[in-house]
Amino acid sequence: MIKSGPATGPLFLCLHLMKNPKIQAVLLFVLVLMSRLPFLSSGFGMDPDSWNMALVARHIAETGHYVTSRLPGYPMPELLYAILPESYFIFNLISAVFSAVATVFFFLLLRHFRLPFPFLFALAFSFVPIIYINSVSSVDYMWAMAFILAGNYFAVKNEFLLAGLLLGISLSCRVTSVLMFVPLLLLIPRQPLRIYLKLCLAAAAGSLLYFIPVISTYGFNFLTYYTGPDIGLRRIVSMITQELWGRVGLVFLLAAVLWQVIIWLKKPETLKADNSQRRLLMAGGAGISLSFLLFLYLPHEAAYLIPTVVWIMLLLPLFLRRQVLLVVIAGCLISPVVTFGHTGIYKGPVLLNMEYREYHFRHFSTLLQKLSQVEKPVMLVAGWHEHALKFLNKIPDSELLIVYRVEADGKISHYHLEETITTVQEAERKGYRIFLLEQMQDEYEVDAPQPELIPLFPNHESE
User: Fold this and answer.
1) How far apart are the first and last CA of the chain?
2) Interacting residues of 361 by C-beta distance below 8 A, sequence separation 6+
3) What value does the mean pLDDT of the chain take?
4) How many CB atoms lie within 10 A of CB 455?
5) Which residues have C-beta within 8 Å of that of residue 391, sequence separation ≥ 6?
6) What SS3 state is found at 63?
7) Segment holding 367, helix H or strand E
8) Distance CA 242, CA 130 (A)
9) How many helices (H) and strands (E) does the chain have?
10) Which of 123, 149, 136 is nearest to 32 (CA)?
11) Which 3 state secondary structure label does DSSP give 403?
12) Cis peptide before 377 (omega within 30 of 0)
C-alpha cells in the first residue's frame, strides 16, 4: 500500500473524487456556465429573434396579454422572460444555464453508452461554436436541446413518463423538437404498447400546457411559419460547415475522419457495438437526417442544425478510435477562440460574435440618438434590425415608428403588435418623414414616396 503524505494526499483525493460521475457532472456544469459568464451582458445576441423575444416579453409583462415573437409560438421562454427582470445578463444567463444542463445530459448519455472520454468529449461538445454562440444569447435553441437530451437520457433509463414530459416541454421552446421524438423511440428497446402511449400522452401534456396561451390568442391558426427569402447555395454550404464548427473545428474534424479512414484502409475492421450502441446508431442516423432535411426545407439559420451537431457528436465516439477522438476534442476546444484566413490567424467565431454584438449595440444607440434630433414624426424602415431598435427606442411610436419593410404595394410589414399606420403612403399623408437604413435597401420595394437613406454604421461600413 502506498502511504499518502501531506503533499500527495489531497492530490490522490481529488483524483479519486474525479472518478465519481456525479462530481464530474457538477464540475462540467460549473465549467460550462463559467465559460459563458464573460459574454452575457452585450445585448441579447446577433439573432434578430433574440431581441424579438425580449420585446414580446416586455409587452406581455406590461399588458398581461400573450403575443408570440413569431409563429408557431415559443411560449415557455416568452412567458418566463416576461416574469423576470428585464436584463441582458439575466435573459442570456438562462440560456447559459440550459446549455450547461444540455452538456450534463450529453455527458450522461456518453456514459450510458460506454463511450470513451465522456467528460472531455462533453466539454468539447459545449465548445462547438454554434452551441457556444447560442448559449450566450436569449434565443431558444439551447432551451429545447436541454429538454431533448434530458428526455433521451431518461428514456434509456426507462423513466418513460418523465422522458415524454421533457420532450413535450421542448416543443414549447421550439415546435420542430417534435421531430426528435423519432430518434428517442429508436433509442429504447421495443416496448409494450402502453409504454409508447405513456410517452405520447406525457409529451402531449407537457406541450399543451404551455400552448394554452398561444391557442387562446391565435386559435389553431398558430401552426404556421415564416418562409423567408431564398438562400443561395454558397450561403447554405457556409452554414453547414464553418458556421457550425468554426474553421479550426472543421479542419480538425475532417482530419480526424481522414485519419480514421486511413486506419480502416490499412486494417479493415467491422464496427464493434453492443445492442444499445446499435440503437444509438439508428437514433443518431434518424436525428441527423430529420434535422438536416428540415434545414434544407427552411435554410434560414445555421442554428437550425444544432440537433444535427448533437447527434453527430454522439455518434463520433462509435466510429473514431480513442487517439483520433482526441483530435476532435482539441479542435472543438480551440475553435471558439481562434480561426484562420488568407492572411493569418484571427479571433475565433465566439470572440468575433461578441465584437459584432458590441459593435451593433453601440451603433443602434447612436442611430436612435440621431433620430431623436430629427423633426418628428419619423418612420424608419429597419429590416432585420427592427426588433433591436424597437426594444432600445424610448420615443413613442407616434413620433418614431420603426417597421420591418415596405412591400411593393406600399404595405408596411412587421412581425407582431399591430401598427396604427398600415401603408407608407398613409404615413406620408400624416406627415411622417420616411427613413430607410442604408444597409437595408432591399426591404423598401415601393417607388414612391422615396425614403431618405440613413446609415447604421459610420463611413458606410458593412455589417
Assistant:
1) 65
2) 42, 43
3) 90
4) 14
5) 44, 51, 54, 55, 58
6) helix
7) helix 349-372
8) 9
9) 19, 8
10) 123
11) strand
12) yes
Q: What is the pLDDT of residues 237-264, one digit of tens each?
A: 999 999 999 999 999 999 999 999 999 9
Q: Helix-strand-coil percent breakdown of the chain, rounded to 5?
A: 65, 5, 30
C-alpha dist (Å) from residue 421 to 215, 401, 402: 27, 9, 11
Which residue do the cell numbers 468575433 mark?
Answer: 352
Residue reference for cell 447559459: 96
Cα gap 395→401, rounded to integer Å? 9
Kindly indicate the confidence band of residue 224, based on its pLDDT and cuts at 50, 70 and 90.
Answer: confident
CA 100 – CA 50 distance, rounded (Å): 19
CB 303 within 8 A of CB 47: yes
In order, the DSSP letters of 301-343 are -GGGGHHHHHHHHHHHHHHS-HHHHHHHHHHHHHTTTEEEETT
Burial 346-385 (b: 16+ CB within 10 A, else e): eebbbebbbeebeebbebbeebbeebeeeeebbbbbbbbb
Task: Compute the half-sphere exposure of residue 415: CA atoms within 13 Å on the CB side of its CA.
Answer: 27
